Amino acid sequence: MKISIVVTQEEHYKYAQEICDTIESSALLRGTGIAKRTPEYIQKKMENRDALIALADGKFAGFCYIESWQHGKFVAHSGLIVHPDYRNLGLAKKIKSKVFDYSLEKFPDAKIFGITTGLAVMKINSDLGYKPVPFSELTSDPSFWAGCKTCTNYEILKSKENKMCLCTGMLYDPKEKQKDPPKHPFNVKVLNRLKSIKQALFLKK
Questions:
Q1: CA angle, 197 as apex, 196 and 199 as ends, to 5°?
Q2: Which ranges carry the N-acetyltransferase domain (predicted)?
Q3: Model pTM greater than 0.85?
């Protein structure tokens, strides 16, 4: 089975609704928080060529898009998703790696960051050279944090004044030239423990 990963264009607009549905259903299945996207927003990212899509014989297989903040000073990858029919093939890592390289081309001086509760995404980020950081090292742009309002954990984030949540912040600074090899090897046990501590602190009744 051949899966191609390409920068989006007009012919891919038809997948916007399916992408949104897959992102939402995946989050519900995992029981994690999610910042919801609309098909219109996804299509806008496609129009601006700020997204990559994976296709298998014309069928939607995966997706991820780029957002920039503070005039290109910070860049984030959002909406990383793989369709259930194409999981366990290493596709998420391939998409993430391609969108990472594409981001470096479009925004060569930007710091690339992300926030996530998923250990699989943390592993991929770590392999690319990201390091865990406090939220204070991420963008201060309020419009980024406003995107978390539809997440089930938003009240936690708001109560901590955008300084902490169940998500872990991760950052890649191109000035450190840390992609190969990573300077911060991924440790599942450590990050799993961190996640458990945050859940115990923030979700206690």
A1: 65
A2: 11-151
A3: no
Q: Can you tell me whether residue 174 is helix, strand or coil?
A: helix
How far CA 147 is from CA of 5, 88, 104, 130, in Å, comes to: 26, 29, 23, 22
Answer whether 118's CB lies under 8 Å from 170's CB. Answer: no
57-66, 130-139, 168-177, range with the lowest pLDDT? 168-177
Q: Which of 170, 183, 176 is nearest to 75 (CA)?
A: 170
Q: How far is CA 15 from the centre of its chain?
A: 19
Helix ranges (DSSP H) in 71-187 = 91-106, 119-128, 142-146, 154-159
CA distance 190 to 88: 24
Structure tokens at 91: 């596709």
Alpha carbons within 13 angstroms on the beta-carbon side of residue 5 total 22
- C-alpha 69/C-alpha 74 separation (Å) is 5
Sheet strands side by side (includes 3-7): 3-7, 51-56, 59-69, 74-82, 111-116, 168-172, 131-133
Q: Please report, for residues 53, 115, 136, the alpha-carbon distance to residue 12 in angstroms, rounded to integers and kept in the order given.
A: 8, 27, 36
Report whether pLDDT(182) > 60: no
Amino acid making up residue 67: E
With 90 as the cut, is the pLDDT of residue 65 above it?
yes
